[in-house]
């Protein structure tokens, strides 16, 4: 496409680009923010690091290394590269993009709260969104998905807010796609919510999200405290804003958007009629008759006749209190990138533009932003710090390299990082705001955010126990803190025996009848996950080996439950469905590890054999495995057109865990992984690796280093460091 085009409110000009040599990533104790330097002095004082350059897609000039022939040589080369990306506090960072509905929530919030948008941000967000525009012309739910009304209406609106002209050919094309999908009134509930905040649609278009639900007694089966934490924490500010029916005052841009986003005249649109309109491409989880009936009652009976001002006031007051606790408990970092901007808006509405809450929220928005070669995006969390760091430690340890003087300083820093990120307190008003205890736990990203996650705690404590047991490593985390982490892990078991993510499951699966998001599946309550369950199993097993006398009976009972669940979760074809990585290759790796830990391997277990056979039957010509994200959507293993380094590593790990007897397919797979390693030791980005809520994909770019190294390390420990190339 021609570079010369109309942008910026009709001015003719080139797409602007910031000077990439001026961007710096600041990591303050795990809080990652990007900064655009203004002066030469600043640049001199704060030179660009290799990690900055790498993440920005600039040449790192890291040297070519001696070609690897054996697994350990390959790991050594991998670490030569990856160790250069370690950030000063000891963690690794990365983009955590994928979802295409995050930036719009932020940019709309900036707009309606009149938050100044730094020019460099604006330029690079525009670049990112155009870089991710699909050939068809729109945007999808995530970077690899086809255009949807959700993605297209929201990202189109974002670009317009940032000053892109409606006459830009790319915008004309995007409008064409949006109109062919029925226009913005056919977006899902979140489109309708955000566009009503903007005043582009009228509030009648949005199905009700009454804050009164927060007044329900706790025993009520549908009370929000029972919902999956991400749903309830998004519902919280959403219900507050909905109740206020808050709308930004009309501007010229809003009037223009009203002309651009719909297929008919704004004045003629019956917004109430479109409450349930949705384009088929967006309708991953159609609303059930139960929810539709409930919405009907709310709209036609409850809201007009029963919802008194005093009910609304007390619901808003309690909801506001819960919002304040969420802010206080995270220092305004908030659970994630959806409720973060919404809480900012709620504070703006309630406390006004100059309130401290608004100021601090604005600062915290930076924690979600990431700059890469394509521009600026919004991460799915405020980073992947704890998670990737714990996994990297384990990968190096699997290869038996923890004692190597070359890698010890790197591991020591990583350990220091994990030490600094363990949460040592519970949250204020923990019970009242329905938080699970956090004392002793680790979260996914950092301590600021501080939400305990079962497997994040498990992977972190596992790495700490293993590393601290190696001679020469200091005991940074003393026994009592390790035991606190174990105590938390032991709170995560469900009656099924399995473990969920942030909390034990608090409500029934029937709650999915009230899933109103339309674009996601399995979101309403916590579920058991083979991945989370296995992480808990491995952590407890390792803990037992080092601390045989602590809560022995509890741990035994817990482990038994976990394994019963893992067995039950296996499908007849031998596979396990993955919820956080794509998909069967991810979950299979974990499940086979769980089985091995209780002594079930290929040799003695029909289950382990079926698990292995499922993988072996799907090995590709070149020795690798490749699984498309469609597996997550459909629940049916769907091959990717190309084998993937990350998924191949997952399968190899699973096969080695299970003791698969034939080394030939494993060797072939590792050969493929080694052949894809670059001369400087890195692996290149391939397809997206992660998923949530069945339909939305999310990137884990560090996996392409961590898992190949882990797989190679496990192989070398088992079969020796033999030539594979
Ligand atoms: C994550 C990221 C990490 C992930 C693992 C630790 C890998 C997993 O094993 C447990 C669940 C967890 C913590 C998880 C839950 C859902 C998250 C937070 C995400 C996939 C990252 C983004 C996603 C979040 C829900 C995105 C915002 C979207 C909404 C629908 C609210």
Automatic annotation (TrEMBL):
Alphabetized SUPFAM superfamilies for the sequence: Terpenoid cyclases/Protein prenyltransferases
Top-level taxon: Eukaryota
The protein's name: Terpene cyclase/mutase family member
Entry-linked NCBIfam families: squalene_cyclas
Q: Where is the Squalene cyclase C-terminal domain?
A: 387-715
The alphabetized UniProt keywords are: Isomerase, Lipid biosynthesis, Lipid metabolism, Repeat, Steroid biosynthesis
Q: Where is the Squalene cyclase N-terminal domain?
A: 84-327
- Cellular component terms, GO, for this chain's entry? lipid droplet
Q: Which family does it belong to?
A: Belongs to the terpene cyclase/mutase family.
Q: Which InterPro entries match?
A: SQ_cyclase_C, SQ_cyclase_N, Squalene_cyclase, Terpene_synthase_CS, Terpenoid_cyclase/PrenylTrfase
The Gene Ontology biological process annotation of the record reads:
ergosterol biosynthetic process; triterpenoid biosynthetic process
Q: What is its EC number?
A: 5.4.99.-
Q: Listed GO molecular functions?
A: lanosterol synthase activity
